[in-house]
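Annex B.
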Amino acid sequence: MEGESHGEVEAAAKPHFVVIPFMEQGHMIPMVDMARLLAQRGALVSFITTPVNAARIRPIIDHSLKSGSTIRFVELRFPAAEAGLPEGCENFDLIKSDELIKPFIESASLMADQIELHLRQRTPAPDCMISDSLQYWTAELSQRLGIPRVIFHGPSCFYLFCALKIKREKIFDGIAVDDSKRFPIPDLPQTIEIMKGHVRRMADSPGWEKLRDQVNLAEETAAGVVLNTYEELEPWYIEAYRKAIGKDVWPIGPLSLYKEADVGSRAARGRASSIDTEILLRWLATKKQSSVIYVSFGSICRNSRRHLIEIGRGLKASNVAFIWVVKEVEVLEEWLKGFEQRSTEEKGLVIRGWAPQTVILSHPAVGGFVTHCGWNSVLEAISVGVPMVTWPRFGDQFLNERLVVDVLRIGVSVGATKVQKFVPLEKREEEEEEEDEAAVKRDDVARAVVSLMEGGEEGEERRVRARDLREKAVRAMAEGGSSSENLKNFVIKYASHLRVIDPYV
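Glycosyltransferase: predicted structure tokens.
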């Protein structure tokens, strides 16, 4: 290869994967971890992103460049203006109006030509594309490039199989969305009952039919599915899902256990932390083992002022030490100041904004997690053996709650049944004026927290099960474990010609 640099020659000897995430924190974070694992397995990775999203993971990008990682973080212009979006609206959590949700999802398709041009100008040619399930337009792009395309699904396999079962069995046909009756999902190894509203997706709304059909078709034509889970966590559901879709299913998680994830890199996952990590760790060091409960509801879920007050008062009533992450600071800043004074820093720590979640959950002082049941959060807790108080809001979260509480039996439900529609942060105060009362009360919060943290024999059994799942997760990601082998075999399958693909052999 005369005229080529040593780096180019070396890159040409590696299988090349193109990773295209959906631009939302819960979707991007695990795909960044996946890209690092692929590079660790000897692959070249082109990770497609935009300037705003690249800024959020800048420490990871900088570390990759310094370490000689084979990940190329490709920053392309996001066509906000062409899509009718405000300039800089490059991530789902930056959407300021619910009318812009659908245009935002569709807007990424306008990047297809940029991506194709970039990939055709670089060597080696890509061997495989891994795209988020919402990036439906990558089906056509992969055809133009002549490469196989694999879907990355963010939710649990339990959710994916149950949702597929509900669709194929037409369980909710003729049932009103607001019907509060629970219906069983047939032919499962556990009794799982769910309300229609708890599995209704945004894509089921009027006006979304074309987009929904495009996403479904793109999934049907994909070569396989990559999942952020592990075989030992949901074995029955993974096997049932494989049979149901008739394709390869590759569980390669928990991705949060990426082996180079020291405290610094764990803190860098997602957006920049709103608290100094050293201050946080010093506070946690003063607490007894498993005595602190961590409270956070992800990057998208929004709490009204009324709900925030109920959460705070419920935490205080529980008399359990806590770390509480509050994104919606502007709706009750004065109340929060008074709450902190009454709670004292010794008992509780309030983090305004973004918290280094994996750092917190992995600390020995943390013994419980109040979560919205987003799959990343659930899996991060499972990965470190922390049981959960479940408080789902929408999307896959209600079924994830059933997995945590009914199947894995490592959680206590707060009792939430109301589905929360997505409301941009700027509209939250308008929305709360329509609420007569909070759906979940302080007594519900206190009861669930006390039950989880001081649950006697039942609580100890939950902790034993959580620790067992943690050990299985660690083994799955270790060399020779189920997820490690799945990733290795996935890379082997999609390498188009003979290459050195496994530095561990």
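Residues 273-473 form a domain with the Rossmann fold fold (CATH 3.40.50.2000). Confidence is low (pLDDT under 50) at residues 1-7, 266-270, 427-436, 497-505. Further annotation is deferred to the next reporting cycle.
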